[in-house]
Specification:
The longest helix has 17 residues, at 218-234. The strands form two sheets. Strands 3-2-1-4-5 form a five-stranded mixed beta sheet. The chain has a five-stranded mixed beta sheet with strand order 8-7-6-9-10, with helices on both faces. The protein is globular, with a radius of gyration of 19 Å. Strand 2 and strand 3 form a beta hairpin. By secondary structure, it is α/β, with parallel strands linked by helices. It is built from 13 helices and ten strands. Helix 7 (154-166) crosses helix 10 and helix 11 packs across helix 13. It has three domains: 5-108, Nucleotidyltransferase, domain 5 (2-Layer Sandwich), CATH 3.30.420.40; 115-146 and 226-282, 2-Layer Sandwich (Nucleotidyltransferase, domain 5), CATH 3.30.420; 150-225, Transcription Termination Factor Rho, Rna-binding Domain, Chain A, Domain 1 (Orthogonal Bundle).
């Protein structure tokens, strides 16, 4: 169900928006173009974790927010068309109001490039991308998730770090930091292949924990650049981009590696227009 949230906000109605990543989920309640409530929950990916954790989160959020909304927009990782159809019904049941569900990519597009054409990219725990025109999706190359894709995301970087450190082929600085983490091969296998785990989020956390020694580890610097370059060569460069099409990035890793993204983009003659940590940053 498509909802005109701008119109509702202009009328002074309360609306609730959620940016649901695999690692964390951010909620904003808005009224009169002001953020009146902000809240964070652990991330949920319905494709890998099922629908129940999201239902539980919705019920908890409803008890915490100051006042019930007239409409809810949930945009998140794993929100395929089939998932969205079910989630919109769940929103109506839990919040008692209209609901719109879409991908995290749709939210980023509406906030980063609501007018004109632009390629919108998300580099978070995973990765995603799509070519939009006036907020509508024109072309999308599938991300395929942490097993088959997610190039450039924190989980993708973490996957390579873990494998190389377990095999002892990272450099001295990276291996020293790895040993400080105290993780055994069995710990890794349990967290990646065990039941009831969030492997992509865990691998992304490893990437974050290893970031302390990026400056002193040539191996890590080269690995990060390679992983980010993979995102360009396996996704960005395969879009039908016109000359100077603006490219927008969102996500904490994207913001952290903004300089590298701009350098790689420039090497391919691409126009990197803006890089933000969170799409919601554009609301403030």
């Amino acid at each position: 169900m498509k909802i005109d949230f701008n119109r509702l906000i202009e009328r002074g109605e309360r609306v609730l928006l959620a940016d649901g990543g695999s690692t964390k989920m951010e909620w904003l309640e808005l009224c009169d173009r002001k953020v009146i409530w902000r809240h964070e929950e652990p991330g949920v990916n319905p494709l890998t974790m099922g629908m129940q954790p999201l239902k539980d989160t919705f019920k908890r959020v409803l008890t915490l927010m100051p006042e019930a909304p007239v409409a809810v927009g949930y945009y998140g990782a794993g929100c395929t068309p089939k998932v969205c159809n079910e989630l919109e019904k769940v929103i109506q049941q839990c919040f008692g109001c209209r609901g719109e569900c879409g991908s995290d990519l749709l939210l980023a597009a509406r906030l980063l490039c609501p007018h004109g054409e632009g390629l919108v990219c998300i580099l978070g725990t995973g990765s995603n991308s799509g070519l939009f025109a006036d907020g509508e999706l024109k072309q999308r190359i599938p991300s395929l998730g942490y097993l088959l894709g997610d190039e450039g995301g924190a989980g993708y970087i973490g996957k390579h770090i873990v494998a190389d450190c377990l095999r002892g082929i990272a450099d001295e600085a990276a291996m020293r930091r790895w040993h400080e983490l105290g993780l055994t091969e069995q710990d890794v296998l349990n967290n990646v292949y065990g039941e009831s785990v969030k492997p992509a989020a865990w691998l992304g956390k490893i990437s974050q924990l290893m970031s302390d020694c990026y400056a002193e580890s040539e191996y890590l610097r080269n690995l990060v650049r390679k992983c980010l370059n993979d995102f360009f060569t396996r996704l960005v460069l395969h879009y039908n981009l016109s000359d100077n099409t603006p490219i927008y990035f969102a996500g904490t890793p994207a913001r952290h590696f903004a300089d590298k993204l701009r350098q790689i983009g420039e090497s391919y003659g691409l126009n990197i227009a803006e890089i933000v940590a969170k799409p919601f940053d554009k609301i403030f």
